[in-house]
TrEMBL record:
<dbReference type="InterPro" id="IPR000884">
    <property type="entry name" value="TSP1_rpt"/>
</dbReference>
<feature type="signal peptide">
    <location>
        <begin position="1"/>
        <end position="20"/>
    </location>
</feature>
<protein>
    <submittedName>
        <fullName>Papilin-like isoform X1</fullName>
    </submittedName>
</protein>
<feature type="transmembrane region" description="Helical">
    <location>
        <begin position="217"/>
        <end position="244"/>
    </location>
</feature>
<dbReference type="InterPro" id="IPR036383">
    <property type="entry name" value="TSP1_rpt_sf"/>
</dbReference>
<keyword id="KW-1133">Transmembrane helix</keyword>
<keyword id="KW-0732">Signal</keyword>
<keyword id="KW-0472">Membrane</keyword>
<keyword id="KW-0812">Transmembrane</keyword>
<dbReference type="Pfam" id="PF19030">
    <property type="entry name" value="TSP1_ADAMTS"/>
</dbReference>
Amino acid sequence: MEKWRSKLFLLLLFSHLSSAISFNHPSHGCYWTESCQNKWVGGCGAGHVIINQSDDCNGLCPEPRYPPCLPFHTHFHCCKTESPKVTDKCSKCKNKIDYGDEYICCTDCSDPYVTDKNTKLGYCKTGAELAMQLKPKEVFKWVAGPWMQCSSPCDGGVRYRDVECFGVTEDLSIPHYPVDDSRCSREEMPARQEPCNLRSCAGLNTSNSHIRRQNGMSAWVVTFFVLVGVAAVGGLGFAGYTLYKRRTSSQHGYVYIMLEGYS
């Protein structure tokens, strides 16, 4: 019984090694193994990872190149892990992995898969190449808004303004964006509030009273001249009316005398 077990194990191991050796693995991307392999001792070559297994490659292994698998055998879906190459296309892809200072993506913008976070080894199921792009350099700076109205007109008030931390990148197509205040330097932070209107209210009231008196005198002067003007216009009108009446009365009297002489 032990002999048969040993022979069976050697036979399975030999079939697995022969199938692995006879197949030329692609340089990158994913593939289905051409031959059926034992589910327990089969697998992919070195540097490849198993992501799936199926008796018919999920319908992607047509006969006769891929004959039906025997019981306990299957095709393995393998992907070759690779180091990402440097590119500038990751920023345009929605499907990417953020690693702080860099992005990991696939050159066709499909979902990338990373098997080792330290070395960034990974693969793309679609067969595209794994890529990496360094993030644009970020600069953080304070942005201060306009001052609000002072809280008091005199005797010292306080005014406020909004001060926020914004991030700026070397990529001009990316607008400024707000970030946490801890990203900006506390020493360079502009003041959010400051005192205002420090002059005394007493001096301000005296000045206002003087201004009001001046304004009052000016108003009286204007009123006086208006009244004088109205009186002058009224006097001229009255004089004209009196002169008109006298002339009219004189003419009627002359006519009356002439008529009386003819009667």
